[in-house]
Amino acid sequence: MRSLLFFSCFLLLLTACKPKPDLQGFPVDKWKADKGGCQGVRQTLVPDFKKIRQILKGTTSNDFVEIFGKPDINQIADRNEEYYVYFLETGPHCEDITKRSEAASVAIRFSSVGLASEITFQQGTPVK
Q1: Rounded to an integer, what distance in angstroms lies between the CA atom of residue 36 and that of residue 98?
Q2: CB-CB neighbours of 85 under 10 Å
Q3: What is the number of helices (H) and of strands (E) in the chain?
Q4: Fewest CB atoms less than 10 Å from the CB: which of 43, 60, 111, 120?
Q5: pLDDT tens readout for residues 63-117
């Protein structure tokens, strides 16, 4: 029991001490301002986002929200993993976020300990 508690505290300290990623000038203010990708700005930022995607791996879910803003969709997956989905272009979700949309999006998968482990681009939301 003590070893589990020690390991949990160690893991918490390890993730808490990690600095935020260097985004190499990525314009996060423009990203945040384009909620749901409905103004078409995020679509123009995709090449720059792809350049920093490897840097973003290992970022905590809390840091991700602080940097990029609240996700358009938050999906819970198996084994306590979750996805943050950000739409990149306009679609039915711009009128009503509850409507299913096949618009281009980027999904960030967070592991059960809350670290970004995969970043994928697709149409709509990732398949569970």
Answers
A1: 12
A2: 19
A3: 4, 4
A4: 120
A5: 999 999 999 999 988 888 999 999 999 999 999 988 889 999 999 999 999 999 9
Sheet holding 116-123, edge to edge: 73-76, 82-87, 104-110, 116-123
Q: What is the pTM of this model?
A: 0.82
Strand partners, 71: none
| DSSP conformational letter for 25 | T
Q: How far apart are CA 101 and CA 92, in angstroms?
A: 6
- Measured over all CA atoms, what is the biggest interatomic distance in the chain, rounded to whole angstroms? 52
| Cβ atoms of 117 and 53 closer than 8 Å | no
Round to whole Å and give the CA distance between 128 and 121.
15
* DSSP single-letter state for residue 57: T
- Strand ranges inside 13-112, DSSP E: 73-76, 82-87, 104-110
The angle at the Cα of 96, spanning 90 to 97, to the nearest 5 degrees, equals 75
**Interacting residues of 28 by C-beta distance below 8 A, sequence separation 6+:** 67, 68
Tokens 């943050």 belong to: 84
